[in-house]
Write a structure and sequence with these properties.
By secondary structure, the protein is mainly beta.
């Protein structure tokens, strides 16, 4: 009986927690500032009260930049009539900061609730607005990530090197040397890419297609060295040639709108003759520095032999900015893993997937299929116009002869 009572109380607490979780917000989620010695700047953020509740809020700072952020207020009272409130703060930077991204966070937290004379168990809401201060690296300095697209129908493997010049000076004649290894760690090829130039504080993609038509189907391993000036960045990655047991054939989102929770559907084909149980998809979305921004995991699926299944997962795009994101879709089953390297181009109402050939817009339709349909439609219309024109000419000749 005691166990059932505890379970009931936990369920009640969980329900209230879910109800409370959306009762506080803040905008902007992040503010990015380029470093300038002794910079003094006044900024603000807005606390949002979407459910028009009465709340007592505490505000404090944390992180590397905490000592340089002075809040206008550290306590705020919201009443039900307040849909939002703006809070200002001063950012006073020193003469020097460490190169790279320095982060400060302003935390807005609901005050702990206490009932009269008794302990109250509840969810304490907190939201964060971030302050990023970017400091250039002295001299010449670059960072890079490598994304490899599996061999296409022509046998071409596409290497995409996203290189960020974070230093003070431009970089000239930047290139990559790539060594390719088999699954047995045997070196089977080596090549150099073409060169590119990268302006200071800019990012460029070095894209190189390598033909792997003569390779046997299977997984391969690549070691790359990005070479600039007298420095080297070492990178590693894998790619696939030929079909494997599970194949990602499509990725789409119905009614894509940036800032919302979107359902990502992935069409997966089982090329094996027997069912595969416990298969799931893992979608890893990377930032510019190669860090994982989000990791989206689907439930487990059972896919019948020689058939297709849609794997679904949910992506919260709140806080995601427009731009290009290197993405890896991993298909896992038993002890096997298949990597699919893609690039997501995110805009407000459109998601372009580079690597599968689909463009996902607000209505959720893939542009590749739409273009095919339009092409067929234009051909049919053209044929009908020609038939009608021919019929009109013949009819005129027939009438002329009768006269």
């Amino acid at each position: 009986m005691k166990f059932n009572l505890r379970l009931f109380l936990c369920l009640i607490f969980f329900v209230f927690f879910i109800m409370e979780i959306s009762a506080l917000g803040v905008t902007p989620a992040r503010r990015t500032i380029d470093f300038s010695p002794s910079l003094s700047q006044r900024n603000s953020f807005t606390i949002v009260n979407p459910e028009n509740k009465d709340m007592e809020l505490n505000i404090y700072v944390r992180g590397e930049l905490a000592q340089y952020i002075q809040l206008e207020k550290t306590k705020v009272s919201l009443i039900s009539q307040d849909s939002s409130i703006s809070i200002s703060y001063n950012l006073n930077l020193p003469n020097e900061l460490s190169p790279g991204t320095n982060i400060g966070e302003i935390v807005i937290s609901e005050s702990s609730k206490q009932s009269s004379g008794e302990n109250f168990i509840g969810a304490t809401l907190s939201v964060v607005t971030q302050v990023y201060v970017y400091v250039p690296y002295p001299g010449r300095y670059a960072e890079a990530i490598m994304n490899i697209l599996n061999a296409d129908s022509n046998g071409d493997v596409t290497f995409i090197f996203s290189i960020s010049n974070l230093g003070e000076f431009d970089l000239n004649n930047v290139y990559a040397n790539v060594d390719v290894y088999s699954s047995l760690n045997e070196k089977i090829s080596s090549f150099n890419t073409h060169t590119i130039n990268i302006k200071s504080q800019k990012k460029e993609d070095l894209i190189y297609k390598w033909n792997a038509r003569e390779l046997s189907n299977g997984n391969y391993y690549a070691k790359a060295a990005i070479i600039y000036e007298d420095k080297v960045i070492n990178l590693e990655g894998t790619f696939r040639v030929g079909s494997t047991t599970l194949e990602l054939q499509d990725l789409y989102v119905n009614n894509f709108n940036l800032g919302e929770i979107v359902k990502v559907d992935m069409l997966v084909e089982n090329k094996w003759s027997e069912p595969i149980s416990g298969a799931k998809s893992i979608m890893e979305i990377y930032g510019k520095q190669g860090n994982i921004l989000d990791r989206i995991v689907s439930p487990d699926y059972t896919i019948s032999g020689l058939s297709k299944e849609i794997m679904s997962a949910y992506w919260d795009t709140n806080g995601v900015y427009e731009g290009d994101y290197d993405t890896k879709v991993i298909l896992e089953y038993a002890n096997n893993r298949i990597d699919n390297n893609l690039v997501l181009q995110v805009s407000q109402n459109k998601l372009t997937v580079i690597g599968l050939g689909y463009v996902i817009s607000e209505d959720g339709r893939s542009s590749r299929g739409e273009n095919s349909t339009m092409t067929i439609l234009f051909i049919v219309i053209g044929i009908l116009i020609l038939v009608n024109l021919l019929w009109f000419i013949l009819l005129r000749k027939y009438i002329s002869k009768k006269k």
